[in-house]
Amino acid sequence: MAAALRFLLLTICCCYISSSEANNPVPKLHYDYSRIQETDQAWKCWKEGYRPAPATSNKIHESGNGTAADIERILRFDQSNTVLFLFASNSDNLNLHTTFQIVPNKLVRLSLDNAGLERLELAFTGRDNDCRLAELSVPRNRLSVLPAGVERLTALRKLDFSYNLLEEFSLDRLVNAPGLKQLLLAHNRLESFGASSVQASFASLHKLDLSNNRLRTLDSTYWSMPLLDTFHVDNNRHLTTIGGWTRTRFPLVKGFDPAGTNNWNQTWLKSVQ
Ligand SMILES: *[C@@H]1O[C@H](CO)[C@@H](O)[C@H](O)[C@H]1NC(C)=O
Ligand SMILES: *[C@@H]1O[C@H](CO)[C@@H](O)[C@H](O)[C@H]1NC(C)=O
Question: InterPro entries, per this entry (predicted)?
Answer without folding.
Answer: Leu-rich_rpt, LRR_dom_sf, LRR_domain-containing
